[in-house]
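Team,

Forwarding the record for the chain on the shared tracking sheet. I've put the sequence and predicted structure together so nobody has to dig through attachments.
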Amino acid sequence: MSLIGTAKGTEPPGDWRAWAIWGTAAVFYLYEFFVRVAPSVMQEPLMEVMHVNAAGFGLAMGAYYYVYSPLQLVAGSLLDRYGARWILLPSVLVVAAGCLLEAFGQSMVGMTLARGLQGLGSAFAFVGTMYLAAQWFPHSRLALIAGLTTALGMAGGILGNAGLQWLIEVEGWRATLHFSWIAGAVVFVMMLAVIPPAPSWAAAASRSTAPPINLLAAILKVLRNPQTLVIGLIGGVLYLPLTVIGGLWGESYIMAISPMSAQGASNAVSMLYVGWLVGAPLAGWLSDRARKRRVFLVASTALTLLTTVLLTTFTTLHPGVMFGLLLAIGLASSMQVVTFVAAIEANDPLLHGTALSANNMMVMLLGGLAQPLFGWILDICAQGVPSGGTYTGEHYRMAMVLLPASAVLGVIASFFLKESFQQHDGPVGH
């Protein structure tokens, strides 16, 4: 996958048009992140409609990740072959179609299919946005663009929690999902109008690079590298708070152990995204300045362990403490963005794109497994609670132990991590 590279004398301009093209694609990433986390504020009505327990709900919603994750291994190659315009345009329509199907959903099968469609279209959002950034901006700006793109995704997470909760209370959850697919149609029109075919300098770059390695051989070479697996495990563990708390279970957990309303709980969950919004660009910048990767990832796993232990220690938490603790978890785990750079540096220079995609696949796959696993643990802890019943704060707190337990694995894995810093000209991803 050749996400980067320009021929001599064909440096991308990085002008106002480049910002418009990147910004339009980044809005798609914001939109798909909004869709990704939306079920977290619709848990009770969705479980009632599907007639499932917590494990079944987590399994259905996790379909997003089961489709998204394996597609990461081919996303870059498809972008190279067809270009960002012809991949991103149908992708946003697929996400919107998933929202439409979810709005009319009446069963677990229908909701699972809807989430699968959302994952299918979303799989190309971040990689496609960075692909365009690499085509239209000089290499010296790519780290900044990656940080800004991540920040927009976190803004989508905030909208998908606090903003969406307000809309649900005003319009209802089905009407809100109708709004979601209409928003996707708007994003499609924006991209259709703004994103052009590949520019001339990108075409020149593709002609100047070496022939690409066989896709299967590239994937196997990256996955056989022990450092790829260590880095992917650390990245997945650090991403779990966003997946478990922000993506599905956080609002219900907070309402069960604090006196907060649904809107207050959504606002609290949004603090997790604020932590990432601030911490992710800062972590990448500091890692580059310090010329180190390992120390940041060791620190991140340790701090994530500490903050998630605190989250599960108390049977009740004051709203102010909850806000501060979720912000701290977000800041601690946001150093996860460094894993993408580490994955690139730990692999062959000709396999940067494959290494990036493989890391993203492992991160999202672990997230997808964690959502139903949390629900299964919740059901085990709450034996006798009927489908659609009420889980207590103690049930949620015991299930939330999944996060510090996973963080322990991340801490252990970090001791097998080698320092990977080297000078490089590549984008990081998420």
